[in-house]
Amino acid sequence: MRILHTADWHLGHRLYTRDRTPEHRAALQWLLRTVEEEAVDVVIIAGDVFDVTNPSNQAKELYYEFLAGLVKTRCASAVIVGGNHDSASLLDAPRGLLRALQLHVVGAAHTDASERVLPIRCAAGELLVAAVPYLRERDLRSAQFGEGSTDRLQALREGIRRHFTEIAEAAREMRQDPGTPIVATGHLFAAGAADDEEKKSYIYQADENNIEAAHFPDCFDYVALGHVHRAQRIGDNDRIRYAGSLVPLTFVEGQASRSVCLVELGRAGEAVRTRKINVPAARTLLRLHATFAEVKDRLREAVRELPPPPALQPWVEVRIKTDTPIPNLREKLYAVIREAAGDTPDAAPVDILRISTERQTARPGGQADDTPRQLDELQPVDVFEQLCEREAFPADHRDGLKNDFRELYNWISEQDEA
């Protein structure tokens, strides 16, 4: 049986206010072709279908266009679970209709575990999917009066592990043939996972040790994870994996290929084979972090190496190392681009989305890179942490304030989603 594991689509995402719809459309069209070419039996989308809980009509249209295209392929079924960016109610609303098309949606974990064990049948055999979406705190526990942040964090970890144990037991009870493989999904940060520094997770107080590979029950032949945008395995085998994001969400992510994971399953307990398939980049994201002269040279190279149509116009993020102000910086950089293009096109062949500077040498008593980040580069928790640092609170007081703020921020986000 062949499973295509993908996650973290973030439909509707904008990069510095720029619309990503053409990139997402190209990636989803490629995904449908890959399903056909690889003779995929089941598609699993492990959370964060959308970028926000109230996505645009255009983002929802992309989602339903993909599902409509999927039912026209030879793929027998799909399982879609909600992520922390998704509205569970929005995903679940059409689940009755989608179920008739063998498209199974689990937006939230508010039902009994046995109701989220999905039997999937296809020409290659039968499969059970233990569908675990993003687990919100209300799905795991009730707050206890007077508990500290450490107690709360430990209770969350225990709740996550208990949840996977319960759904594994439900899957074992439902399995009639002991040879039927069981696949689980999850949307969380597992211990040992690595992601780009600029993509921080504030789920469970930004904890990166929610669950370890050894805590996933042995009956799971494969665990399809989402939330971490870098494709990787967890532990020492290939049965627990992150597929990574479908398109790069930041310029840092744009420096590495995005991918999906093709999983080949046999009978329960047999070795699992996985293969990473890179997603073709519809748009180049160029990240230039150098001196002014070096940035100009790189821009000239980018113009000379423009990808042929139908590739989209490359986007560039520029951060120039300089100790002196450079007047009319944007105009000077675009002049370099137009000069390299050899003519005067109506639109520049390369578009610069952000320009910033940083010092090369340290100010007295400071560091070389002490240029403050702009507000739209920060998450709310980043801003609060900087405020705590500025006020010079004692370390224990500061850590407690940060944890309390993260808890409050997560609670507000969940209330907005509900």
TrEMBL record:
This is Nuclease SbcCD subunit D. Residues 283-391 form the Nuclease SbcCD subunit D C-terminal domain. One of its GO terms (molecular function) is 3'-5' exonuclease activity. The keyword Secreted does not apply. Heterodimer of SbcC and SbcD. SbcCD cleaves DNA hairpin structures. These structures can inhibit DNA replication and are intermediates in certain DNA recombination reactions. The complex acts as a 3'->5' double strand exonuclease that can open hairpins. It also has a 5' single-strand endonuclease activity. It comes from the Bacteria. PANTHER family: COMPONENT OF ATP-DEPENDENT DSDNA EXONUCLEASE, NUCLEASE SBCCD SUBUNIT D. It comes from Neolewinella marina. Keywords: DNA recombination, DNA replication, Endonuclease, Exonuclease, Hydrolase, Nuclease. Residues 1-230 form the Calcineurin-like phosphoesterase domain. SUPFAM superfamilies: Metallo-dependent phosphatases. One of its GO terms (biological process) is DNA recombination. CDD domains: MPP_Mre11_N (cd00840). InterPro entries: Calcineurin-like_PHP, DNA_Repair-Maintenance_Comp, Metallo-depent_PP-like, Mre11_N, SbcD, SbcD_C. Belongs to the SbcD family.
